[in-house]
Amino acid sequence: MSIRLSKSLQAVVQFDFAEVMRSRWLVFSSGLYALLAALFVLVGLRQSTVLGFTGMGRVLLSLCHVLLLLLPLVALAACGQVINRARDDGTFEFLFSQPITRSDYFLAVSLVRFAVLVLPLVALFALLAFLGWTIFGQEISWVFLGRSVVICASLLWAFVGFGLAISVSVRNQAKAIMYLLVIWVTGVVLLDFALIGLMLVWRLNPQTIFILASLNPVEAARMALLSSADPTLAALGPVGFYLVNRLGTGVLFALGATWPAAAGSIAWIWGRRQFIQNDLV
Amino acid sequence: MQVELRKVTKRFGSVLALRNVSLVVPSGQKVALVGPNGSGKSTLIRAIMGMVAVEGEVLLNGRAPFHDPLRLANQIAYVPQNPPSLSASTSELVHTVSLLRGLKESAVQVIASSLNLNLGEVWNRPVRELSGGTKEKLMVALAVAAKPSLLILDEPTASLDTASRLRFFELFEQFTVDVTVILCSHRFEEVRQLARRVVVLEAGQIAWEGEASDFLDGQALVAMGVQGVEDSQERLPTGPTASATACKDLGCEV
Ligand SMILES: Nc1ncnc2c1ncn2[C@@H]1O[C@H](COP(=O)(O)OP(=O)(O)O)[C@@H](O)[C@H]1O
Ligand SMILES: [Mg+2]
Q: Is the pLDDT of residue A173 over 70?
């Protein structure tokens, strides 16, 4: 029995991995990462001629900002149409007439997509550390790199979960894309300054704003990431800055590392349930 | 494998695709589901495959299928009405199915070639780029190679040319001796070649069931009071041509 189970998981992992290798979002995201690495070098070189490169931290900070925008988008692109597309194009009718369980399929797809999102990111960070060290002669702190990887992985998992939940529950692919965009925009817009704006417009009290801020996985990741790089008001914005001072970087890191992953897991569990209980076709 | 449905009902929103369908297909029997488009044939098959959640019970070998789904699934093969439009290549597909079912890839190739499909020629091509007939042959080859005890065919020869269809019938003869077969069909010829028993579905209900030969003689039409047949009972359609004409009223193609 256990051999059979692992066979079904293994077969779907192989099958979906091949599928991912053909997909456009992978090319897209690898291209983006390569672009980021190139930008990092260019900006770094520029700064080093001006300032004698004291600004590594600053470059990393900009990189973090860009990643906070991109990672949710890439994860949604990777997962937001897996299920509904396979349902539409007859893949499910074929696959699930084979000895495959739905829970194995869902697990396999989630693992493959998550791995393909995280591994290039780890490679990117390693590359940056290497470039920083060889080209600019500055060591990037391993603690910073480690923390960043953990936070980014957590953020990716959040959006893997959201994407899969959408692709399970919204059958119409065009509609699903719309929902995915709404989720992404909400995630990346409902950040610090926008929250302050909301507070002013809707006269929300600050407590509500802080709770809203930490509930948004992107903001949770953002505060954690930025506070470990540059815990200043200018970098963090007022909400983040307040929370750093209130909670400390340790708590913020813990929040940024766990909350997005937890939110993603909730969505994932919900999506898996829907997928197992509802009609396949 | 014995298949039993007990008062199976399926709703899609306001559409009642199956109403209270009860049916027993004994092990080894070959039964054709016949009926016009939208009468619920595919839905009935998906209910048996556990792909749609239904009210009522579906029992395989007398047990609910969730009991040991993987072991059961290994004994069931299915040729869907619409082959998947996968970006995966033929080789990936054959490899995946072989891995899942513990088959030799060469076994699939042998069966494919008996259907006039040379897998080598399409080995590296994405499945979705294959012609309809080629996809269908590939699906049939994978299903037959699995040596199932329940074979479900949803309009299996719809896009095959005449020669390939004949080869399919031969293959079927050879490989399905003790196999339970459930066939959905629009085609008179398929029913005649493949089935011993016929179940006519209309608007999600069983409208008639009986021997295939009786169905082919047009008795189903009389019993159901199909328009134009009842009016001319004395000129009851007999013989293949007449019943074929009448069969069109049931949505069959000849
Ligand atoms: N996934 C679905 N969602 C909504 N309605 C469906 C779905 N599948 C089938 N139906 C409806 O159920 C009825 C039976 O369809 P189907 O079983 O495909 O018929 P057949 O195979 O006999 O042509 C049709 O009215 C069809 O529109
Ligand atoms: Mg159908």
A: yes
Question: Using one digit for the tens of pLDDT, what is the confidence trace for B208-222?
Answer: 898 888 888 876 666
pTM over 0.90? The answer is no
Please count the residues of chain B. Answer: 254
Name the residue type at position B233: Q
Contacts of A267 (CB under 8 A, 6+ apart): A158, A161, A162, A164, A165
Cβ of B70 and A277 within 8 Å?
A: no
What residues have CB less than 8 Å from A20, skipping those under 6 apart?
A26, A78, A112, A113, A116
R_g over Cα of chain B: 19
* C-alpha distance from B71 to closest chain A C-alpha (Å): 7
**B151 in Cβ contact with B179 (< 8 Å):** yes
ipTM above 0.90, yes or no: no
B139 CA to centre of ligand 2 in angstroms: 16
The answer to whether the Cβ–Cβ distance between A5 and B70 falls below 8 Å is yes
Q: Which residues of A touch B80 (CB under 8 A)?
A: 90, 93-94, 97
What one-letter code names the amino acid at A137? G
Residue nearest to atom 8 of ligand 1 (CA): B43
Check if the beta carbon of residue A260 is closer than 8 Å to that of residue A155. Answer: yes
Query: What is the residue extent of each domain of chain A?
Result: 2-277
**Beta-bridge mates of residue B5:** B23, B58
**B42 Cβ partners below 8 Å, 6+ apart?**
B81, B154, B184
Structure tokens given for A143:
């603690």
- For residue A151, list its beta bridge partners: none
Q: What letter does residue A141 receive in the DSSP assignment?
A: P
- Distance from the Cα of A104 to chain B's closest Cα (Å) equals 11
Give every CB contact of residue A156 below 8 A, 6+ residues apart in sequence. A71, A74, A75, A114, A117, A118, A121
Cβ contacts of B76 on chain A, cutoff 8 Å: 97
